[in-house]
From TrEMBL:
The lineage of its organism: Bacteria, Pseudomonadati, Pseudomonadota, Betaproteobacteria, Neisseriales. Keywords: Membrane, Transmembrane, Transmembrane helix. The chain crosses the membrane at residues 35-60. This is DUF2909 family protein.
Length: 64
């Protein structure tokens, strides 16, 4: 699960960089909005993954 969380963080950073690049180049606002929408969806997915992992005990050893 840690690999999934790290992968999601990297994807979030990548989509944010893509949105920044499209804003700085002055391309269509639709591309920027699409990249930012994807970033929000990935952030929400990461949050839900972390919440589920915390509730199900995926992040802590079983002895705690």
């Amino acid at each position: 699960m840690k690999i999934a969380a790290i992968t999601l963080l990297l994807l979030i950073m990548l989509t944010l960089a893509f949105a920044l690049r499209s804003v700085s180049r002055g391309t269509s606002p639709r591309q920027t909005a699409r990249a930012l929408t994807l970033r929000v969806a990935l952030s929400l997915g990461l949050f839900l993954l972390l919440m589920a992992g915390g509730m199900l005990g995926w992040w802590l050893p079983h002895g705690r």
